[in-house]
Amino acid sequence: MAFQLEEQVTKQQDGWSVGHFCTTRLHISRKMLVSIKHHGEILRNGEHVIVNEIVHAGDRIHVRFPEEAPASDMHATSGELEILFEDDWLLIVNKPPGMASIPSRLHPERSLSNFVLGYYQQHQIPYAIHIVNRLDRDTSGLVVFAKHALAHHQLSKMQQTGLLDRRYIALIEGQITPQTINLPIGQTDHSFMERMVREDGQHAVTHILTSEPLSAFSRELSQLTIKLETGRTHQIRVHLAALGHPLVGDTMYKGTPLIPRQALHSASASFPHPRTGEVMRFEAPLPDDLRL
Fold this sequence. Notes:
Elements: E1 4-8, H1 18-24, H2 30-39, E2 41-44, E3 47-48, E4 60-64, E5 83-86, E6 90-95, H3 112-122, E7 130-131, E8 140-146, H4 149-161, E9 165-173, E10 179-182, E11 185-187, E12 195-197, E13 205-216, E14 219-228, H5 235-242, E15 264-272, E16 279-283
């Protein structure tokens, strides 16, 4: 069944066009409206209506979105998911380390997205996979999935405007002070995967909010709380390495292998709910290997 949305027109919206009501009140993009025109439908009080017609106070506008389906070459994988929150708009999952966020050509199965698709099929959730924040394979923690295209559109806008607040926990050797790192990041000349700080790279900003000293493995470590302003590939890893304090375990960026993966955890996310506007906060507990 396709996603559907219904809303009543208020006095303040009396005289709006159907299209303006959909884009302003329901936050449907113009591109999505075109798709609805061809593959869905808009009803006013149960009757088909086009976008340039006028709405009046008390009208009920019902939108049926186009049917969704996952990519035809995407495999569903059965298994347990650690679900932190779920409703008709969102699925919040705690990803373990060692699992990719999305499938790749060489590894088409057993990514987090494959498991989510398996969960959708098991529970007859009729939507495609809309992942909002990807994590590196060895980064653990909170991943946000939008249940359908409208939720994904709204969450993507929140990412662009800074309304989606993501916080990470990181472990480094040595000590640094809270600070903002504003250094551009680009691909290295010798590796498709590896990144580096370079003048011709993309704008990248990382905020180190707190830095707490720890002692473990007979070494002086620090636990950092980090907020991302931008979301470049390997951003936290590259920025900390550029300061001379790579993540513990991050051997790609010369981190000491005290644990068998980079010590980075997506700890929390907060943002307004795409339907209600209520600010919600989600947290993923710190995994055992980072509880030093």
